[in-house]
Amino acid sequence: MHKAMPEKGRAGDEVLTELTAFKGEDPRYKEGRVWSLVYYLDETHSDFIKEAYHSYSSENGLNPGAFKSLKKIETEVISATADILNGTKDVCGVVTSGGTESCLMAVKTYRDMARSKRGVKRPEMILPKTAHVAWFKASEYFGVKVRLVPLQDDFTPDLKKLKRLINRNTVMILGSAPEYPHGIIDPIEEMGAIAEKKGIPLHVDACVGGFILPFIEANGEDVPLWDYRVPGVTSISADIHKYGYAAKGASTITYRNLDYLRHQMFVYENWPGGVFASPALLGTRPGGGYAAAWSVLQYFGKEGYRKLAEDTVAAVNGLKAGIDDIPELEVMGKPIGPLFSFRSTDPTLNIYAVGDQMDARGWQVNRNQFPEGLHAMVTAQHLRVVDQYIADLKASVEVVRSNPALAKEGGAATYGMLAHVPLRGMVKKKVLEMFSEQYRAGGGELDLKSGATAGDTPGLLDKVVGWYVDRQQRKGR
After folding, report:
1. What is the spatial distance between Cα 392 and Cα 385, in angstroms, rounded to a whole number?
2. Which residues form a coiled coil (predicted)?
């Protein structure tokens, strides 16, 4: 419903009360019920980062010569990041607004570098199929064609096929530490050797792992090399607002040296407003994000992050052990770190129906496709809910096992059908059409998911499937 701006202002307390009320239907992340999007520890930590953010909420990092404090903060954040990523003193980079901006900047950088140094006019980049969707967005934004590497049975990229995809138009290769869908760390050492031999930059997407894998390793866990210790790695993206527990949004992109970073930067010298230079995608760069990011690094230090990593790994291990105790389920691949996915090994047990049952019990569970599964992004906060999650998961499996018809209801039916609709281009077009409608002035509520129960308001995916079913019926199929 369209709601115009009020003619007169309202009392501050009244506005803040209504603002808080908006959260009534939001996920219960403070109870450990959410398995993505939010990295919450407790109210003490939340209050701390709010105060840090507020202390620089008006400052702007657009001009590093104006607010010198912000440039000092950014420099120290990048130095700390380079330290935990085992970089040398030559490692350089910038703070960005989030992982997507960091990924976009890598693609822009390597496209422009290949254009400048090798005259590449039709740029391509090589991505494993498990690459985060941000890389496909970057492909569309910057006109860099994606060449996809298929996966092996263990969900790692097929390196023999990766080698065959390299050609004169290749501007970069991507590896992930870990990849999002299954939590697998790509074989960065082997990929680095290939990249170095071919003279192609290798970017490591550690947006998820950058601020936890170093501390998991420091705690004595076996983690394969993936950072600047691998000679072929030329850049790394790592989000502080994930497992660094900073305020949204704060990420980093670092490069092995300035020879790479220079190609990321934008300079325009003929603007009537003066010579303009920008290091990354944004113009205005919110100082609050810088301040909160710097503050959490100082607050936790390496010792604090090691403890958070220890708690997170304990939660992950508890969840995996609980899943292993359920005969019909298995963890996909051999994930290392805070992410994993699991699937059904029983063809009569629909994993999406299990997800519906978990949703009904108050958990916000994410779904995978290709193959079908459920996903968990685990934080230190989840350690206290492991037993309850596993108990509810066992109960959910029993409900679905005793009632296979649940596979044809609610979200299970929607996700199951959507994953098998053959006309992917038409699905994309229809999702875009429906998704964009939500952004009209006064647009309706946005729900990407399917409802877990038949009485729920249909979500976007329900509508797409409904469109497809109607289309097939009209065609007499």
Report:
1. 11
2. none
